Amino acid sequence: MCSSHGSPTSSSPPKRPADPAILARLADAHCHPSDDECFEGALESNASSKLGTICAMSSSLENQEITTKLWERNKNKILPCYGLHPWFIHSLSLSNSPTVPTREEHYTALFPSSTDVSQPSPSLATLLPFLPPPLLLSDFLSTLTNNLEAHPTALVGEIGLDKAFRIPNPPELASSAKNSDLQTPLSHQIAVAEAQIRVAIRLERHVSFHSVRAPQDTVRLLERIRGEPDGWGRVHVCLHSFGGSPETAKQVQKMHPNAFFSFSTIISGRSPRFHELLRAINPDRLLVESDFSHTSQLDAQVWEVFEQICEAREWSAEECVERLETNWRNFLELEPEGTGGRRKTKKQRRLEKAPVAEEVDEVEESNPK
């Protein structure tokens, strides 16, 4: 999910017209039709899309249900995904009490003053009336579990970490800047992301993960989970619209054989090293995505990144679509019991030993708001 996922602006014109036969073999691994401003338009666009699969992410508390409705209207094409995006987790309370804290109690604890943690942030008083009522994390996890159990093929997404996001000011505060200075603490983000990953592991569902300006934190989170014998290697994680450096991508691939990478031109394509990054990914771990909510633009966006991959990897269109088609099919499969990651092809039988986690370069990504 990105600042432009609702914008129909394309990053560059296509080099050739989109081929419907190729699109039919591709999956948009990450998009946001549940955020389309026109629900009926989203239904129509999803039905007319030439893509083989549309992986529809949930992001906020409100659009989990919309994702279900989209799937109900187009079960052959929509793959529903349920989860809470880091932009929307500030309403979740980590309290172990069965009683939901008051709005003031919850947000005062979540957004303390930078100079005195016993006091709330000075910005909170103005914003507090506009913030959503608190919800226990345990209650949301119950909803997440119910949605996944009701949809046996559903994935977990979109979840993750975002160190760029600031809580937006509401329209009622017209004289204020677009964003406040309030940022959901990283510790809170990690707790919520990890809790959702635990649900994914327990129910054996794959994960779509958002990481903005948090490469080291993402690596550490995944490494900690990988070190526990709880079935993490059975499921796959897709690092969507990956914007890290080629060096970071190589490190993640060595450490996490169950990691895939999906790319969009609207986000990943901003990097001057985009083609170098595409070449740094193992050919069997590449996926494509649009990261768009304007569903009428999904085909064009996926086609655009498809062309970029062909160019960067010097693949023919047929070779590229064959690889992406196989990769998507492999992504959806579970690994055998007792494995620590993806099964290797005949050319990849040599086991990779995961190195000790090293510091990695910070990813330069724009503020999503």
From TrEMBL:
Span list, region Disordered: 335-369
Skewed-composition ranges (Basic residues): 341-350
Biased composition (Acidic residues): 358-369
InterPro entries cross-referenced by the UniProt entry: Metal_Hydrolase, Metallo-hydrolase/TatD-type, TatD-like
Protein name as catalogued: TatD family
Xref: Pfam families: TatD_DNase
UniProt GO molecular function: hydrolase activity, acting on ester bonds
